Amino acid sequence: MRAFIPGRRMLAALCAAALLGGCAIGSAGQDSPGAGAARPVGDVTMVVPFAAGGGSDIAGRAMADGLVSVQPGLRINVDNREGGQGAVGYSYLLGKQGSPNYLLAAETSLLALPLSVQVAFTHRSFTPIMKLGEDFTLLVARPDSPMRSCADAVAHSRTRRVLAGISGAVGPDAVVFAQMERLAGADFDTVPYEGGGETLAALLGGQVELASLNPSEVMGQFRAGQLKALCVFSDQRYTYPELAGVPTSLEQGVPVSFAQFRGVIAPGGLNPAARQYWIELARRFADSPAYRDYVASEYLQPRVAFGEDFAAYLADNERGLAQVVRR
User: Fold this and answer.
1) What is the average per-residue pLDDT within 299-327?
2) If 0-12 CB within 10 Å is exposed, 13-18 middle and 19+ buried, where does residue 163 land?
3) Nearest-10 crossing angle of helices 87-94, 8-26
4) What per-residue confidence (pLDDT) applies to 197?
5) Average pLDDT of the chain?
6) What is each CA distance from 272 to 31, 127, 176, 230, 268, in whole angstroms?
7) % pLDDT > 70, the chain
8) Distance separating alpha carbons of residues 64 and 81, to the nearest angstrom
9) Is 86:110 a contact under the CB 8 Å cutoff?
10) CATH architecture type of domain 138-252
11) How many CA atoms lie within 13 A of 7 on its CB side?
12) 163-167 and 189-193 as β-strands: parallel, antiparallel, unpaired?
C-alpha cells in the first residue's frame, strides 16, 4: 500500500512550510495586528489551509459568517493559503503568535502532518477554539462495480489489485484504508490526489475503483446514479434521509470507524481574555441558525467542543492517529 508516502512535490511543499514555520517563530508577534490584545483590533483573517471550494474552505467561510452574524461590527476576511496538504496555512498561523486577529479552519491534517512529516508545529502550538462537528467518509464506487459492500472491497483486495483514490497522502482517507489493512486484512493500492475534487474525478473516470469521500462531496453523484455507497466509516448510521440506508463498516464486519473533525483554532500565546472572547462567540455561533444550516448542508454530525474540551479531543485523536500514521 502507498498511503502515507508523500510524493516529491508534496514533500517539497511540506519542507518549505516547515522552514516558513521555523522562521515565523523567531518573528512571532512583531507584525501581528493586536498581538497580546484582549480582543481583535480591526479586521480579522480566517485562514483556510486548502484551496477554495473544499470542505475546509466551506467550514472556514461558514464559521466566519456565523461569528459575524452573532457579533455586530465584527469583520472577518477569508484567506486561502493552500499547499503541502495544509502545512503552508498552519505554518502561516504559527507566525501570528499572540494575535487575536487570526483564526484558522482546522481539520485532521493538523494532527496527521506532525505525525507523518517534519513540520514546525503540532496542535499544541495553537489555541483550540471550537470543534464544529465530525465528518465521516463513505467508501464509494461506480454503479457497475462488482463490489457491493466494504466487506466485498476487503475480499477483492486480497485476491487482485484494487486501486483506491485518497485525498492527500496523510489525510483521513489514507487513515481509513490503512485501518482496513491493519484491522481487516485488506491490501489496497492507494493513489493520492490533491483533494476531494481530483479524487472524485479519478473515480468517475475509471482511474481508480474505490474512493473515500465525504457525503457533501458525492451527494450530487448519488442522486444522478453515478456512484454508490458501500459503507460509511462510522460507529453509527447517518440520520439524514439521503444517507440513512448506508450501512456502517462495523455492520459489515469491518472494524473501522474514523471521523474527520472540522474546527477553528487561533494562534498560540493568546491573551486569556482574547481566548475567552473567541470561545464565547463560538458558543453563540453554535446556538445560531447559521450553525444548524451549515451542519445540515454538509451532512455533519453536530458534535461540538470548545476550548479545553476541544484540546482534550485533539490529544485523544492524536493518540489514535499515531497508531496508523508514520513518518
Assistant:
1) 88
2) middle
3) 0
4) 81
5) 87
6) 20, 10, 37, 46, 11
7) 88
8) 16
9) yes
10) 3-Layer(aba) Sandwich (3.40)
11) 10
12) parallel
514555520: which residue's cell?
21
User: What pLDDT digit, counting tens, does each position of 90-120 carry?
Assistant: 999 999 999 999 999 999 889 989 998 899 9
- Sheet of 210-213, strand order: 189-193, 163-167, 210-213, 138-141, 228-232
Which residues neighbour 182 within 8 Å (Cβ) at sequence distance 6 or greater? 324
Read off the pLDDT of residues 217-269 as tens digits, 9 standing for 90 and up: 899 999 999 999 999 999 899 989 999 999 999 999 999 988 889 999 999 99
For 8-23+35-134+259-321, give the CATH class.
Answer: alpha beta
Q: What is the pLDDT of residue 31?
A: 58
- CATH 3.40.190.10 boundaries in the chain: 138-252
Place of cell 465525504: 214
Farthest CA pair distance, the chain: 61
CB 140 within 8 A of CB 213: yes
What mean pLDDT do residues 306-327 have?
A: 86
Q: Which residues of the chain does CATH 3.40.190.150 include?
A: 8-23+35-134+259-321
Which parts of 118-245 are beta strand (E)?
126-136, 138-141, 163-167, 189-193, 210-213, 228-232
Q: Tell whether the model's pLDDT for residue 171 goes beyond 90.
A: no
**CA 41 and chain centroid, separation:** 29
The H or E element containing residue 79 is: strand 76-80
- CA–CA dist 277, 279 (Å, integer): 6
What's the one-letter identity of residue 256? Answer: V
Q: Are strands 102-106 and 210-213 parallel, antiparallel or unpaired?
A: unpaired
Lowest mean pLDDT among 22-31, 64-73, 150-159, 230-239: 22-31
Closest residue by Cα to residue 327 from 82, 6, 105: 6
CB within 8 Å of 42: residues ≥ 6 apart: 33, 34, 75, 101
